[in-house]
Specification:
Distance between the termini: 163 Å
Structural class: alpha+beta
Largest sheet: 8 strands, mixed
CATH topology of one domain: Mannose-Binding Protein A, Chain A
Strand content: 15-25%
Number of helices: 3
Shape: rod-shaped
Mean pLDDT: 80
Number of strands: 11
Order of helices and strands: EEEHEEHEHEEEEE
Low-confidence stretches: 1-22
Radius of gyration: 62 Å
CATH architecture of one domain: Roll
CATH superfamily of one domain: Mannose-Binding Protein A, subunit A
Length: 299
């Protein structure tokens, strides 16, 4: 567009009369000249329309943004409420934990008291057990000491001693040399007896009181001859059987560390060594020479 006010090729001004005084502004569009004011009005109207459309679009988008932001606001409120609830739950959990801790400490104190009471009872029971064992040994000792006083005439042969309900022969005399286990048993059988069978504590204590005691000053016990008894595991190792075919079930009265089956040939026959009334048995080589102890029922 070309705006013409005073424009001419020859330098002279030219005007278009409209029937009134003054000049009219025109706009040249190509080879045509158009009035300026209607064109401006039309442009302003078009601009107004564009502004109105822009306002409408902005309003619509704002509404959408408001609607989309509403859930975020609701979510934030829900999170605040949930945080408060979690805080309440945490407080209750801490309180429950403290109560559980108090209950646990109470149970621990009760457990400690019970443990202490059990230890006291065990100590008391151990004391009673020791007293009972002492009384049993004293009873067995008294019976052993009085057995020789009892009338035994005709009940046991000469050279035999009556202890409780059995007659015993100990090969201690010089006329009886030491023998191995088989020969010792054969001697007992020849006498109408067999090697001694010790099947209760009373008999064990009686024999301990009757037989000679080991003197530590003469050397270690294992360097001295023992006394063969009727117990062997020659048939099955570690299964000790008496000569009356009764298997030894309990621990017996073994010297600590015995039986140990020591040596290349092994030790399958049991003997006595009077060291302690609770521990007198040991295993020896059946071919070794020892004293022996026979047992038979009284007449």
């Amino acid at each position: 567009m070309i705006l013409n006010r005073d424009n001419s090729k020859d330098g002279k001004s030219s005007q278009h009369n409209t029937g009134s005084k003054g000049s009219i502004c025109t706009v040249r569009v190509g080879s045509r000249s158009l009035p300026l004011y209607p064109l401006v009005i039309m442009c302003l109207g078009l601009l107004n329309t564009i502004l109105m459309l822009t306002a409408i679009v902005i309003g619509i988008n704002y509404g959408k943004i408001s609607k989309e932001s509403a859930p975020h606001q609701i979510t934030a409120q829900a999170l605040i409420i949930e945080v408060k609830q979690l805080h309440i739950m945490q407080t209750e959990a801490i309180k429950a934990q403290e109560e559980a801790q108090q209950a646990l400490e109470k149970e621990l104190r009760s457990h400690q008291q019970l443990k202490l009471q059990l230890e006291q009872n065990k100590t008391l029971n151990d004391g009673i057990q020791r007293q009972l064992e002492t009384l049993q040994f004293e009873r067995a000792t008294l019976q052993s000491n009085t057995s020789d006083i009892r009338e035994s005439c005709g009940r046991c042969w000469s050279g035999w001693v009556l202890l409780n309900a059995s007659c015993y022969f100990h090969s201690l005399s010089a006329s009886d040399p030491l023998k191995n286990w088989q020969d010792s048993r054969a001697d007992c059988i020849r006498r109408g007896a067999d090697l001694a069978v010790i099947d209760n504590l009373e008999e064990q204590v009686n024999l301990f009181e009757f037989l000679p005691k080991h003197d530590p000053s003469t050397g270690p016990w294992w360097s001295k001859p023992g006394i063969w008894i009727g117990l062997t595991d020659i048939q099955t190792e570690h299964t000790w059987v008496w000569v009356n075919n009764v298997t030894q079930q309990d621990g017996g009265y073994w010297i600590p560390g015995e039986p140990n089956n020591w040596g290349h040939s092994g030790e399958d026959c049991a003997a006595l060594m009077n060291i302690n009334p609770r521990a007198t048995w040991f295993d020896g080589n059946c071919q070794g020479n020892n004293e022996w102890l026979c047992e038979m029922e009284p007449n």
